[in-house]
Amino acid sequence: MASLAPASFGAALSAARDASGAQHYPQGTLYVVATPIGNLADITLRALHVLQLVDAVACEDTRHTQSLLRAYGIDRPNAQLLAVHQHNEAEAAQAVVARLAQGERIAYVSDAGTPGVSDPGARLVAAVRGAGQRVLPLPGASSVTTLVGAAGLVAAGGESSAFVFAGFLPTKAGERDAAVQALAQERRAVVLLEAPHRIEAVARALATLGERRITVGRELTKQFEEIATVAAAELPGWFAAGRDRTRGEFALVLHPVAAAADDGAEGERVLRLLLAELPVKTAVRLAAEISGAPRNALYEAALRIRNDDGNEDDESGA
After folding, report:
1. Distance from C-alpha of 81 to C-alpha of 210, rounded to nearest angstrom
2. Strand order in the sheet with 29-33
3. How many helices (H) and strands (E) are present in the chain, helices listed first?
4. Would you say residue 6 has pLDDT above 90?
5. CA dist 1 to 197, 232, 316, Å?
6. Secondary structure element (H or E) that encloses residue 201, with its range
7. Which residues does 211 contact at the CB level (< 8 Å), separation at least 6?
8. Are 57 and 80 in contact (CB under 8 A)?
9. How far apart are CA 152 and CA 260, in angstroms?
10. pLDDT band at residue 79, thresholds of 50, 70 and 90?
């Protein structure tokens, strides 16, 4: 985590009160607060305000969170920090539920990023909601969306690609290899997270995906941040090329599968059959679903086919 003196955030704390203080912050509510994944300046004004307002802060690591709060100039006694982590989440959640029932406001933060994505928090939120109490999310930093935004994920046809969040791969080699082979069948982009002590083994497993591109994000938002895109087969070599490249925390994006060369031909074949019976929009939609060819390209093909046939497009019923 970047180191900044508490005085650096004095103006931010004042701005947080001005910008967020007039909003309603109900009692008996769990506030799920995203915190920076590296750079302390990536905190939101609303998060700073809520972290000052709540009666207690539930957190993954009380020492880490105390250091984070003090970096922002927020001073809380240790008694107001509640440990809620992967080893005690179920039991600790009940203690949080009891305090919410008494009307307290409680914030939950993980060590970094948005709680409940790859860190603890999901069971706590489920318990609170199951008890009929309110959960109010405060959006912010996430390594998942940070790397997706920098990866340039483009699906066949030029549209932005959908993506799947897979989190951490299995730690055992056989299970990891099986998981990678399953990922090979996923045509959409896939986001992974990994720790430094496993990243080289993960890179070797992903190398079996050959020419499929992978974007690596190392130490995102931190001083030595590094982002690179390589073919999967080249990933082990990329890590081996720099002494520091296996250090830090990692996010990886497996890019979407490129369209097969014959997708367009198959899509147009299906499209011609459908156009004989259906309006253009309906035929295009069904042809895209059947063949996997991009909808934009099929629509252009449909207009060309109708024009060549000398038919006017009938969109009735589309």
Report:
1. 47
2. 81-83, 56-59, 106-109, 29-33, 134-138
3. 12, 10
4. no
5. 19, 30, 59
6. helix 199-206
7. 231, 232, 233
8. yes
9. 20
10. very high
